[in-house]
Specification:
about 400 residues, about 20% strand
Length: about 400
């Protein structure tokens, strides 16, 4: 009898431990375990994987130039884990909830994969009427915000922290340093199953500054990768458990030198982080999502090859055109001299020469008068010639 009671106690204890262990895994999706291979395959259509000497395989997203993690194309939502970042990118389920973000001067922001899921891997600050946050870099843990450059921080007025259009209220870049100096670290953490999460501003504090009730969404598990979706009082996010697999690797690995820093870098001097270009990028990503990953990667390879050939053809045509212009420039002086028209006479001089040729000179007029006088017969010679033509009277009388 005593042995049976001991068996019942042991079974009851095991059932409690099993229940605690099962409930303790709510930070990741129960029953779904994947490796880094899913990261490599799912994110390939939306960016490039690079073999980094410091962090291994890192991912550089194909995004707009002003992209910044936890700022572009997303918003904050209050959940049972605290402030949770909800991304509108189709690939947002992974880089904003696993791993860390790192900034590189050559190609901008890149994501370093990680094993642990979290509502958002950021550090928080508060003060001067603002809330601020910045992505945690590789090697930084919860509660550590040193060595985070001030330009990585995003600040927003406290009353707009849960706005669906939060990007409209970001503080301008030129004021970030001043706002940063008026804020202090928020050490509000959420602990569950020996895991600590940076929860950010407390719900009670947000309700006080917004003067409105703040709903708390329950995180539910999505069945497939994609962007987060709010459904009533729940937030659906795909969050599988990540296991180690030494053989996992990206199908295609790009060279860091092939990624231009101009198209990746964020303008940190002026302006704001906007969401309009992010929406267009998200729409493009949705279209890509309808195609298989292998088809998309093959299309990307063909597009890159075609782009390379087109660039070579343009460079060859540009060199030919430059050579032709150089030859034409060398031949131009002699051709211009040979083709230069004779100097045109002055119009006034032409008119004067015409008038002078039309008017005879005084000497010419005198000669003409003399010639006309010599050719005209005199009056005496005219009378003698008339008398010779007239018959005399003697001759008339003889005839009679």
């Amino acid at each position: 009898m005593k042995t049976a009671n001991n068996i019942r106690i042991l079974l009851f204890s095991f059932s409690i431990l099993f229940a605690i262990g099962f409930l303790g895994k709510v930070n990741a999706q129960p029953g779904v375990t994947v490796s880094f291979q899913q990261f490599y395959d799912e994110l390939s259509p939306y960016g490039e994987w690079i073999d980094d000497p410091d962090y291994g395989y890192i991912w550089v997203p194909n995004v707009e130039p002003d992209f910044q993690p936890y700022a572009t194309n997303g918003r904050w939502v209050m959940t049972d884990y605290g402030n949770t970042w909800v991304s509108n990118y189709n690939w947002g389920w992974a880089p904003f909830h696993y791993g860390r973000w790192n900034y590189n001067q050559r190609f901008g922001w890149s994501w370093v994969p990680g094993y642990e899921w979290g509502p958002a891997w950021v550090s928080w600050r508060s003060g001067g009427g603002y809330y601020g946050w910045a992505p945690l870099g590789p090697g930084l843990s919860i509660g550590v915000s040193v060595n985070i450059p001030s330009t990585y921080w995003i600040f927003v007025p406290q009353r707009h922290i849960l706005s669906a259009s939060i990007h409209r209220y970001y503080a301008p870049r030129r004021t970030v340093v001043n706002v940063y100096n008026r804020t202090t670290i928020i050490n509000n953490t959420y602990v569950y199953n020996n895991h600590r999460y940076y929860a950010g501003p407390r719900r009670t504090d947000i309700q006080r500054v917004t003067r409105s009730s703040v709903p708390v969404h329950r995180i539910s598990n999505a069945s497939r990768p994609g962007s987060g979706r709010i459904n009533g009082q729940s937030l659906e996010i795909y969050r599988p458990n990540i296991s180690k697999n030494e053989r996992a690797r990206p199908t295609r690995i790009a060279s860091a030198n092939s990624i231009r820093s101009e198209s990746r870098s964020t303008n940190r001097n002026t302006g704001k982080v906007t969401g309009r270009t992010a929406t267009a990028s998200a729409n493009r990503n949705k279209n890509v999502d309808r195609r298989p990953a292998s088809t998309t990667r093959a299309a990307n390879v063909r597009a890159n090859d075609s782009k390379t050939r087109n660039n070579e053809i343009r460079a060859k045509e540009s060199n030919q055109a430059l050579q032709a212009r150089t030859n034409n420039t060398a031949k131009r002086p002699s051709a211009e001299r040979s083709a230069r028209p004779a100097a045109q006479p002055n119009r006034n001089s032409v008119q004067r020469s015409e008038r002078s040729s039309a008017k005879p000179s005084a000497q010419t007029r005198t000669q003409n008068v003399r010639q006309s006088r010599s050719s005209t017969p005199s009056r005496g010679s005219e009378r003698s010639s008339r008398s010779q033509d007239r018959p005399t009277s003697a001759s008339r009388s003889t005839r009679g």
